[in-house]
Amino acid sequence: MKVDVLTLFPAMFAGPLDESILRRARESGRLQLAVHDLRNWAHDRHRTVDDLPYGGGPGMVLKCEPVFEAVAALSGPATRVVMMTPSGRPFVQPVARELAAEEHLLLLCGSYEGFDERIRQGLVHLELSIGDYVLTNGALPAMVVIDAVTRLLPGVLGDEASAEDESFSHGLLEYPQYTRPPGFGGMDVPAVLLSGNHAAIARWRREQALTRTRQQRPDLMENLGPANAPANDEGIS
Ligand SMILES: C[S@@+](CC[C@H](N)C(=O)[O-])C[C@H]1O[C@@H](n2cnc3c(N)ncnc32)[C@H](O)[C@@H]1O
Q1: Please, what's the largest Cα pairwise distance for the chain?
Q2: Residue 52 contacts residue 61 (beta carbons within 8 Å)
Q3: pLDDT tens-digit profile of 46-73?
Q4: Hey, which of 135, 140, 144, 145 would you mutate to test ligand 1's pocket, going by the most ligand atoms within 8 Å of its Cβ?
Q5: For the structural domain made of 2-150, what CATH number should be given?
Q6: What's the CA-to-centroid distance between 193 and ligand 1, angstroms?
Q7: CATH class (in words) of the domain with range 165-234
Q8: pLDDT digit string (tens) for 67-94?
């Protein structure tokens, strides 16, 4: 997958995307990432990309001209233009899966007060928010999207099953995980996990996932499909 990023802070991307799984995805060519400085498309000697808001108010607004020119230069027929904005659609795991099927993403990172509305109207296919809070600029949200999408690309995770059996993949939070030693600080690994009984382990994990989801994220319980809905005898309404 090809991902281009348009930002005022390209240096922020060095580091997080150069480590571990993301680094290997880039080295193997499964993720082709390019980060571009929006100021490259400014035309004056101060490299201006923002201006005062019409109607007054605090802060600066990103101008149409450089963003339209940059998107034209970086887009192809398969490009999906994604704007990072707190007023976007919530970025959740099903959206990450949707995006992982795309050929080319172009992520627009805002700064200051955000974008001139005509950028949204004229260029953007999808607006994404990473949560109900406001960050200083769109670089961190873009990195969150790149990370979550890249690990879903075929071949990126060593064990393909690990993206199948984790929080949100079936609408539930993940069950508790343990590794050696079997006892630590007075806390023991549940006996069922040491039993070798795979059916009992699967049942225990599902019950734990349901309990944890009900406790931590009751909102997710409301959206469970029939395949995941708890049976009546599990006492969860
Ligand atoms: C200070 S914010 C602008 C906030 C804007 N005035 C508003 O109230 O919606 C600057 C930029 O950071 C990015 N940003 C901040 N919080 C975000 C979030 N929760 N999700 C996605 N992008 C965000 C966006 O690209 C945004 O244009």
Answers
A1: 71
A2: yes
A3: 999 999 999 999 999 999 999 999 999 9
A4: 135
A5: 3.40.1280.10
A6: 44
A7: mainly alpha
A8: 999 999 999 999 999 999 999 999 999 9
Residue with the nearest Cα to atom 15 of ligand 1?
A: 135
For residue 176, what is the DSSP state?
A: P
Residues with CB under 6 A from ligand 1: 84-87, 109-111, 113-114, 129-131, 133-138, 141
Where exactly are the structural domains of the chain? 2-150, 165-234
Sequence-distant (≥ 6) Cβ neighbours of residue 48 within 8 angstroms:
42, 63
Side chain identity at 110, as an amino acid letter? G
The two tokens of residue 191 are: 């006996």
What whole-number distance in Å separates Cα of residue 18 and Cα of residue 6? 18
Angle at 14 between CA 8 and CA 18, to 5 degrees: 145
